[in-house]
Specification:
Elements: H1 2-26, E1 31-32, E2 36-43, H2 56-75, H3 78-81, H4 83-103, E3 106-112, E4 120-121, H5 123-141
Antiparallel strand pairs: 1-2, 2-3, 3-4
Helix pairs in contact: 1-4, 2-4, 4-5
């Protein structure tokens, strides 16, 4: 039971932080330096704007993917064993999914351009990357968990 509460708390926390940051940039916040620009960008695809050509279908494909992964995580008790990583992953995924339904794309706002151009991303993207890195680490280096 504690694992599920930790999962829901982490998911809600990540979702709410993500929403607050995105609303800040949606409202027009902008800042620029030599290496980083912080400003509103609407990404209609996924990473690097891939699959933007799928249009409205993309959000429904992602709903299915998130539901499948959540079902798998529940069946395999991954959420019970790793509630914080799971909550981080699903809270962030739901944050980006929320954007797709409300704004027609994901609100991105961090653009790195120091030495090379990098993709524009957001807090939820970072949380997804950290959660996936955590699961990869656990899988390959912590076989006993």
């Amino acid at each position: 039971m504690r694992g599920r509460i930790a999962f829901l708390s982490m998911a809600l926390g990540v979702f709410l932080i993500d929403r607050a940051l995105k609303e800040l940039f949606f409202a027009g916040f902008y800042w620029e330096s030599a290496c980083i620009t912080l400003g509103f960008v609407l990404n209609k695809g996924v990473a690097f704007s891939l699959f933007a050509f799928l249009g409205e279908w993309l959000k429904w494909i992602l709903v299915g993917l998130i539901a499948f992964v959540l079902g798998y995580a529940l069946k395999e008790r991954i959420i019970d064993r790793h509630p914080l990583l799971s909550g981080m992953l699903f809270g962030a995924a739901l944050g980006n999914l929320y954007d797709r339904f409300v704004y027609g794309g994901v609100i991105d706002y961090v653009y790195w351009h120091c030495g090379f151009d990098f993709a524009v991303f957001n807090f939820a993207d970072v949380m997804i990357d950290l959660a996936v890195a955590g699961f990869i680490y656990l899988h390959f280096f912590k076989k006993d968990v």
